[in-house]
Design brief:
Blueprint lengths: L1 E3 L2 E8 L2 E8 L5 H22 L7 H6 L11 H15 L16 H19 L3 E6 L2 E5 L10 E4 L7 E5 L4 E6 L19 E8 L2 H14 L1 H8 L5 E6 L3 E4 L36 E4 L1
Parallel strand pairs: 11-12
Antiparallel strand pairs: 1-2, 2-3, 3-4, 4-5, 5-8, 6-7, 8-9, 9-10, 10-11
Helix pairs in contact: 1-4, 3-5, 4-5, 5-6
């Protein structure tokens, strides 16, 4: 754990990814803020033990195999299952953990939810502002001390050294696509791998829902883009496989020339973001 520009920065390998913390203590003492980061990490590891589908002995795996009932697992599991039901309904089935091979798989929502839980630990400790990034699922608290909004760089889907855009979300942002993990997404209706979307980003109030909707947008593309327009407080930014871009009207992009020092590219820890000068425009861009 290090202190950079009055921010506590910490990187924690957990849940099959890297979770990065950037915390500005404010009125909270440095010692209390550091203790809160450690508590948040312990919470993430606890949730990883609960929800891992790669560990055959985890409560989630035992529930999926029928060895444990819903009343026998930690209370976090039925809570997340209910959130998955709600997200499936809101996405009109484009996010559907029950359609995944091997049984109900909450992976497309639970990482964002877990990052929210980690941020809640920091908030309860009284820190002034924080960014928690779990492999591209980002939860935000307050504003950076230099003022203005958090600025989040969205990686270009075909150029790892470039940004597609820089966003200014209020609370949460998640990006889904196949450019880092390969073709891992599955269309729940056809069972096929989606091919029309290169990158799908959602912003909104709840990271768990943002995470699920980003998965749905990556799978269904324009159909979910239309759906997001009907959700109050949620916005979408889509990069199609042909290079065209589309954003809903309320998506907030950083203005050209702004300082991007507080930005994070989803999936990258602080200090590893491509330079803002490498912004690459794609084929066409529409906002409505």
């Amino acid at each position: 754990m290090t202190l950079t520009e009055d921010a506590i920065v910490h990187i924690e390998p957990v849940m099959g990814t890297v979770v990065s913390f950037r915390v500005f203590p404010g009125a909270c003492s440095d010692a209390d803020a550091r203790a809160a980061v450690q508590s948040a990490c312990l919470r993430l590891h606890e949730l990883d033990r609960f929800f891992s589908i790669w560990n055959a002995d985890s409560p989630m795996s035992l529930f999926r195999s029928g060895q444990l009932g819903l009343e026998e697992v930690p209370p976090e599991i039925p809570l997340v299952i209910e959130l998955c039901r709600q997200a499936r309904a809101l996405s009109k089935g484009w996010f559907d953990p029950w359609a995944m091979p091997g049984g109900m798989d909450p992976t497309g929502l639970v990482k964002g939810w877990a990052v929210e839980q980690a941020l809640a630990v920091l908030q309860a400790a009284g820190v002034e502002a924080a960014m928690v990034n779990g492999g591209g699922d980002i939860a935000l608290l307050g504003c950076p001390p230099e003022g203005g909004a958090w600025r989040i760089g969205i990686r270009h889907p075909w150029r790892a050294d470039a940004l597609a855009c820089v966003l200014e979300p209020n609370a949460a942002v998640a990006t889904s696509g196949c450019y880092e993990r390969g073709r891992h997404l599955l269309n729940p209706r056809s069972g096929r791998r989606p091919v029309s979307t290169a990158s799908a980003t959602i912003t909104g109030a709840s990271l768990s829902l943002v995470d699920a909707l980003a998965t749905a947008l990556a799978v269904a593309g324009d159909e979910v883009l239309e759906l997001v327009r009907s959700l109050d407080g949620y916005e979408a930014y889509l990069i199609r496989a042909d290079g065209s871009e589309h954003a809903t009207a309320g998506m907030v992009f950083a203005r050209h020339g702004q300082d991007h020092n507080t930005s994070l590219t989803p999936g990258r820890p602080p200090g590893e973001m491509p330079s803002p000068g490498t912004r690459v425009r794609l084929r066409s861009f529409t906002v409505d």
